[in-house]
């Protein structure tokens, strides 16, 4: 699944980038705002990465996976019919 190919650190950095880009100009340089990813305190980076990791896990869990209880059934077109 594609979510396994995304690094949580990269996703957190992208979230930060777009969050900064979409903020109103007035508050973008306040005490809460960090201009670049490098300016974000390590503790905040860790929280963002943890949130990104959870988001990726949730996206992965939302994918449709074959039901284990039905593994013994043949795939369409693979069953042998007749006696």
Q: What is the CA-CA span between the terminal residues?
A: 40 Å
By DSSP, the count of extended strands is 0
User: What is the general shape?
Assistant: rod-shaped
Tell me the number of helical segments per DSSP (H or I, 4 or more residues long): 2
H/E series, N to C? HH
What's the alpha carbon Rg, rounded to whole Å?
22 Å
Q: Roughly what is the average pLDDT, rounded to an integer?
A: 78
Q: Roughly how much helix do the residues carry, as a percent range?
A: 40-55%
Low-pLDDT runs = none
Q: Major sheet: size, sense and barrel closure?
A: none
Estimated share of beta-strand residues: under 5%
The chain-level structural class is: mainly alpha
Structure in words:
With 83 residues, the protein is mainly α. It has a domain at 1-15 and 40-64. It has two helices and no strands. It has helices spanning 8-22, 42-61. Helix 1 crosses helix 2. The longest helix has 20 residues, at 42-61.
Key structural traits:
mainly alpha; 2 helices; 0% strand
Topology:
Blueprint: H1 8-22, H2 42-61
Helix pairs in contact: 1-2
Summarize the structure.
The chain has 83 residues and is mainly alpha-helical. It is built from 2 helices and no strands.
